[in-house]
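The authors assume throughout that readers already know how a fold can be written as discrete tokens. A single example would do more here than another paragraph of explanation. An entry of this sort, consisting of the sequence and the corresponding backbone structure tokens, reads as follows:
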Amino acid sequence: MGGTATWEILWRKPGLVAAAAPICGGVYVEKAPEIAKANCIRIYHGAQDKVVIPEHSRRIFEALQKQGANVAYK
């Protein structure tokens, strides 16, 4: 659950880390304003993931873009 834990750190401790790369994690899109405070976020999620569906990553990616975050989704 490292990807989810990465998201948790970003929204629970805004500004603690400068960059993050959550892999296959899920997070509530309502947390986007806090998460967007990180300087650089690179999201990775395999399209065939059946445990944590990729839609979670796509939703937070879109929410972070709306916040003006430096974010990329691979």
Observations:
- The helical segments are 2-12, 32-35, 55-66.
- The mean pLDDT is 94.
- DSSP finds three helices and three strands in the chain.
